[in-house]
Amino acid sequence: MTEPQTFLSLPDLASRRLGGSVVSANDETFADKENLIKPEAPTFRAGTFGPKGQVYDGWETRRRRSSGHDWAVLRLGVPGVVRGVVVDTAFFTGNYPPYIAVEGCGLEGYPSAEELAAATWTPLLEQSPLQGDATNAFPVKSETRFTHVRLSIFPDGGVARFRVHGDPIPDPRLVDLSSFDLAALENGGYVTHCSNMFYSSPTNLISPGLASSMGDGWETSRRRDDGNDWVAIRLAGPGSVWLAEIDTSHFVGNAPGFASLRARDARLSDDVEGSGWFDLMPRTRLQPDTRHRFVVGSDREATHVLLNVFPDGGMARLRLYGALSSEGREAFQLRWFNSLPAAQAEAVAGSDWGLTEDEVRKFVGARPLTASELPAPLGALFDSR
């Protein structure tokens, strides 16, 4: 079972920063459902009463006077495999729910609240006890890709924040695999190591969109030695990088003076410290508060990239544009299809690839598939991208 400290390092797939949304809730009498996915920590000011009582920075339902329970449905900003959830009941003391449960589902397109209500939901976390005014972390054991999650509280009460940590798995039908950001979190990029994250997380570097402030980037403490700070990123798949964007926006007096990029192919060697690293971009001068773009042109394939900053400082975003190798494309596409819930996989195989009902059931039931097991329609679609 995954330990909480392990899954907490993974991105929050439901966060508003990644495009998450609270689609529906059966009740939000005292506090709005949208508060659940705010990226910032919850706050509280005693004695701030509105027309509905004390103002809470969270989602709060009325006191139930009948059987049943309350729930909220969230659309993940980035679909993926859920590794753990956090139910934060900060400041909810006499009004938190004593139990919660979590389910997931995977659907095509952008379903309505009514369509989600009729969907097939898979348990991710059975009904579990909750503590008030606490950060409740629960590991999840699943290998299925979900697009939506449902938080159920028993019987009622308030939750400040709901975090859904996991591995992003993008839809290859929606990505041009011949030219895209190999480092992007939403494409499957992942920060594996970092020398220093004193002020903010290096995961911000590969998050969607432009940084809104200095706090929305990565910033290290001030170095007092002769070394330098760095971040290691596992790419979305094996591929080649030809353009790097190094963005120091908002960092004025604390931007790095220089940066360099190195890469390695972990398929050739597991020796992180060894000679497998090669240069993508030499040590290059940076300007404060600037979006830099550098042609890095290398035909060598890589699975990981190391960003070095000299000597320290902060950066808003890092983009690494390139293309997946043939092996990388194959793995990218298969990982998506093999992880789909059965109902969604059947919908894809039946509509996109025109298989008969019997072929669909046989095909989906045989997962996980390898490249050699792909039927002609699926293989043709993958080859065409």
UniProtKB/TrEMBL annotation:
Give TM regions. Answer: none
Q: Which family does it belong to?
A: Belongs to the allantoicase family.
What keywords appear on the UniProt entry? Answer: Hydrolase, Purine metabolism
Looking at the record, the residues that make up the Allantoicase domain are: 19-168, 188-323
Matching entries from Pfam families are given as:
Allantoicase
Pathway, per record: Nitrogen metabolism; (S)-allantoin degradation; (S)-ureidoglycolate from allantoate (aminidohydrolase route): step 1/1
Q: What is this protein called?
A: Probable allantoicase
Q: What EC number(s) does the entry state?
A: 3.5.3.4
InterPro entries given in the database record = Allantoicase, Allantoicase_dom, Galactose-bd-like_sf
Reaction(s) catalyzed by this protein? allantoate + H2O = (S)-ureidoglycolate + urea
Per its UniProt entry, what is the enzyme's top EC class, as one word? hydrolase
Drop me one GO molecular function for this one.
allantoicase activity
* Entry annotated with the keyword Hydrolase: yes
